[in-house]
Amino acid sequence: MKELAAMFEDAGCAKVQTYIQSGNVLFQSEPALAEDIPGLVSSAVFSRFGIQVPIVTRTTNELADIVRSNPFMAAGADPDKLHVVFLAHRPDEASFRSLDPNRSRGDDFAASGRHVYLHCPNGLARTRLTNSYFDSRLSTTSTTRNWRTTVKLLEMSQAMAQE
């Protein structure tokens, strides 16, 4: 994670912090640079480690909207059964409509903008609503975080913005 944080710093980011060992990085950047960060860091990871890793970013305001708008939380779902699939790009409406609501019995999802909310009562390891499924149907790249991590990232991001 230290090397990953250094790659964000080399890409022009400030106040770089990592959270747990799963590639969560918080940072500040100039607005003009924000769109370039994923490509710059992905290229740096490839140069250093020889692997292609997608970088998916969200602003503090986007995270706040995601946390505020979770339809499963509003319905009283157990937070331990909730996840967010963060999409690199916003799919078109036809792609969203192509998602099969019956793909994974007992699980549910709600797609919106550049993310998909997941409710997986039997656990994420048992769902058929995988990153591969969403990537192939939505023609994008995704990464999934559990609900508690998503909320913690928002809290950390808000604290960083107030510093």
Order of helices and strands: HEEHHHHEHEEHEH
The helix/strand class is alpha+beta
Shape: globular
pLDDT below 50 for ≥5 consecutive residues: which ranges? none
Q: What is the residue-mean pLDDT, rounded to a whole number?
A: 95
Proportion in β-strands: 15-25%
Note the gap between the termini: 22 Å
Major beta sheet, strand line-up: 4-5-3-6
Helix content: 40-55%
Q: What is the number of helices?
A: 8
* Total strands: 6
Cα-atom radius of gyration: 16 Å
Please describe the biggest sheet, giving its number of strands, its sense, and whether it closes into a barrel: 4 strands, antiparallel
Keywords:
6 strands; 8 helices; alpha+beta; 163 residues
Describe the fold and architecture.
With about 160 residues, the chain is α+β, with helices and mostly antiparallel strands. Helix content is about 40%, strand content about 20%. It is built from 8 helices and 6 strands. The strands form 2 sheets. A 4-stranded antiparallel β-sheet has the order 4-5-3-6. Strand 1 and strand 2 form a beta hairpin. The longest helix has 16 residues, at about 145-160. It is globular, with a radius of gyration of 16 Å. The two termini are about 20 Å apart. The model has no long low-confidence stretch (mean pLDDT about 95).
